């Protein structure tokens, strides 16, 4: 296979990985990477799962597509590689974090540190062609990532799901709200944020308050 899922995720998702659509998706991705420049790098396609194992997952943040500009995508939603300029949505995420927590705006846009603490930074579609937004949508990725959300909902308890924007909010139907915490707001993109739908949501402090009440380790955002 072109990608291998982290062992901690293979057991809960083993039935999904054996379905025909996933084999077709694997073939599609293999062909795309052979014929075109695609992002993220092959070894980072499943980075969200590599850095955040199933047992440690406490928070889920949902994105839509990887960045399609050169050198940006690193397999974690909203995150960019070291040394890469911060895209507008990530800038607004950091600005809200600044005002919510009183933290200094970070130099690096790489969110690996969040993932290593149990934040699953999951895009709905995990690959994309260079400079062709949404080019890998409706090829099977959404089926797979929906199954990931459902499996987390079914097998874990007390997860904080952060659903930012209309696309992410639609995923609420996959989550058992009786077992988990669902926080929603507008998307951090300038279009939404500048209309007042993003800033002031205080999701970072709210998430840590939920974890504190459950006697779970807080996230160092």
TrEMBL record:
PROSITE patterns in alphabetical order: U_DNA_GLYCOSYLASE
GO cellular component: cytoplasm
Signal sequence, renumbered to the chain: none
A Gene Ontology BP annotation from the UniProt entry: base-excision repair, AP site formation via deaminated base removal
InterPro entries xref list: UDG_fam1, Ura-DNA_Glyclase_AS, Uracil-DNA_glycosylase-like, Uracil-DNA_glycosylase-like_sf
Predominant cellular place of this UniProt entry's protein: cytoplasm
Catalytic residue positions: 65 (proton acceptor)
Subcellular location: Cytoplasm
SUPFAM superfamilies cross-referenced by the UniProt entry: Uracil-DNA glycosylase-like
Alphabetized UniProt keyword annotations: Cytoplasm, DNA damage, DNA repair, Hydrolase
EC class of the enzyme, as a word: hydrolase
EC number: 3.2.2.27
Domain Uracil-DNA glycosylase-like: 49-211
Domain of life: Bacteria
Gene3D superfamilies referenced in this protein's UniProt entry, alphabetically: Uracil-DNA glycosylase-like domain (3.40.470.10)
Catalytic activity: Hydrolyzes single-stranded DNA or mismatched double-stranded DNA and polynucleotides, releasing free uracil
GO MF term list: uracil DNA N-glycosylase activity
Family per similarity comment: Belongs to the uracil-DNA glycosylase (UDG) superfamily. UNG family.
Annotated function: Excises uracil residues from the DNA which can arise as a result of misincorporation of dUMP residues by DNA polymerase or due to deamination of cytosine.
Protein name from the UniProt record: Uracil-DNA glycosylase
Organism classification: Bacteria, Pseudomonadati, Bacteroidota, Flavobacteriia, Flavobacteriales
């Amino acid at each position: 296979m072109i990608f291998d899922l982290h062992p901690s995720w293979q057991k809960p998702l083993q039935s999904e990985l054996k379905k025909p659509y996933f084999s077709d998706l694997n073939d599609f991705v293999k062909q795309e990477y052979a014929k075109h420049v695609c992002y993220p790098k092959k070894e980072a396609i499943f980075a969200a799962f590599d850095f955040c194992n199933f047992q440690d997952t406490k928070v889920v943040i949902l994105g839509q597509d990887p960045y399609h500009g050169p050198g940006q995508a690193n397999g974690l939603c909203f995150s960019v590689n070291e040394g890469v300029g911060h895209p507008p949505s990530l800038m607004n995420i950091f600005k809200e974090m600044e005002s919510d927590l009183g933290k200094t705006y970070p130099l690096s846009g790489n969110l690996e540190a969040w993932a290593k603490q149990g934040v699953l930074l999951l895009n709905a579609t995990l690959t994309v062609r260079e400079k062709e937004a949404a080019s890998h949508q409706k090829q099977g990725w959404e089926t797979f990532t929906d199954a990931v959300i459902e499996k987390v909902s079914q097998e874990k308890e007390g997860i904080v799901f952060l659903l930012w924007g209309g696309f992410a909010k639609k995923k609420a139907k996959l989550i058992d709200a009786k077992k988990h915490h669902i926080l929603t707001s507008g998307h951090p993109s300038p279009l939404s944020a500048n209309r007042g739908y993003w800033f002031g949501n205080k999701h970072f402090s709210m998430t840590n308050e939920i974890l504190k009440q459950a006697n779970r380790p807080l996230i160092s955002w």
